Amino acid sequence: MAPVKVYGWAVSPFVARALLCLEEAGVEYELVPMSRAAGDHRRPEHLARNPFGQVPVLEDGGLTLFESRAIARHVLRKYKPELLGGGDLAASATVDVWLEVEAHQHHPAAGAVVKECVVSPLLGGAPDQAVVGENVEKLRRVLEVYEARLGRSRYLAGDLVSLADLSHFPIMRYFMDTEHAALVEALPRVKAWWEELAARPAARKVAELMPPNFGFSKKP
């Protein structure tokens, strides 16, 4: 049987989300290298896989999927359902709630900070401090909610790790290399939660494919 294939570049937090779930589930897979700079995502063969020209794309047998969170859910539903709450309806619903929080509250704010503080300088630009300030404050409020939540359970969706936690890893891997990592350091439960996530073998393996400079040198 051919291994699962993932198309994309591993430095992308979205591709990394798919890879992290495959690693957590112990699934054999092939990362099919692509180049954003060369426009591989806009070539006809890739647009046939994802008409929006984005990564990642996953091929699992005859099934082709795009959108990283949909891929993550499929991988875990098929190969490691306990990370989605298993067969318990209440547990699964709670995982879904915190996945929505990650997607709509956490990622937009953390992603904006990473874009301004990491990506823009690498492209020869300067951070927009108004955008940084606005999103640091948004993220601070989100993490304060997490701090309270983690006082009631070990992980966001309960006392067992789940996709609700793991889905945070890719963007946080870059965020923690910014000066604003102090937001996490200031909250003891969030800090411990993050350190535990980052220490997981799957996360450590995927992090090796995610250099802080996104794989390219800063422009003069």
Please state how the strands of the largest beta sheet are arranged side by side.
2-1-3-4
Write down the Rg: 17 Å
Largest sheet: 4 strands, mixed
Shape by Cα distribution: globular
> Which range best describes the helical content: under 10%, 10-25%, 25-40%, 40-55%, 55-70% or over 70%?
40-55%
- Give the termini separation: 48 Å
Count of runs of 4 or more consecutive helical residues? 10
Number of strands: 4
- Uncertain segments: none
Q: Sketch the topology as an H/E string, one letter per element.
A: EHEHEEHHHHHHHH
Secondary-structure-based class equals alpha+beta
Strand content: 5-15%
Mean pLDDT: 95
Characteristic terms for this protein:
single chain, 220 residues, alpha+beta, 4-stranded mixed beta sheet, 4 strands, 8% strand, globular
Task: Tell me what you see in this structure.
By secondary structure, this protein is α+β, with helices and mostly antiparallel strands. Helices cover 54% and strands 8% of the residues. It contains ten helices and four strands, in the order βαβαββαααααααα. Strands 2-1-3-4 form a four-stranded mixed sheet, covered by helices on one side. α4 (89-122) packs antiparallel against α5 (129-149). It is globular, with a radius of gyration of 17 Å. The N and C termini lie far apart (48 Å).
